[in-house]
Amino acid sequence: MLGLGTLKRVAKEIRSDVASARDRDPAARGVGTLEILTGWAGVQALLTHRVAHALWDSGVPFFPRALSYTSRSITGVEIHPAASIGTDFFIDHGSGVVIGETAEIGDRVTLFQGVTLGGTGFARGKRHPTLEDDVTVGSGAKLLGPVHVGQNAKVGANTVVIEDVPPQTTVVGNPGHPVRVEGKPIEGPDVDWIHLPDPIAEAIKGLSTRIANLEAKLAEARGESGESAEVTELRPKQGPSSAGG
User: Domain limits at 233?
Assistant: First the structure.
């Protein structure tokens, strides 16, 4: 039932969500609560979802879906009223974010614009992703099916995740490849997408090195002294962090 306890819980979640926006978005620091509530689409979508989810859990017909549809029309963020979302959740910019019916999101999770937590096929039951605490998902990433993303994991921008992601892991690419397992602990949302490792570039670099070595050995065996083919070194992106500061 929709009682006083539920209303207190929703009010507490709303205060936490506003605080999360102020903490994680540099543009929101020093901005008043009223301005955040009226000017941050991700916050507006989440607050609407808190109410719609409470109504959904209480068995209220029609209104949860109507609230969700209205929120999508205004904010560009689509969250099914049945989706379970923890505390301190933040959607940066928000436009294009889709969160499916059976999605489960833990505490202190951050999503950027264009993220999809979607399903695959038409099977009933659990068909959307589960994100544990402190997960960060970059712009345009697609997490499809009942995949499980472990605590403190990081999903790179435009990554497509179709398999489970272990805790403390960074995944990039399509499909997503783990590039950092049990690495340096992530403290808060890490938004430095520029300096992520590139597993495909590393593989090409390894192949280029092996080919150059084989060509050198072949030339030596033949008694030739020709110059080996030039190999272009693939270097990771240099420069300042995209996280600002």
Answer: 198-245
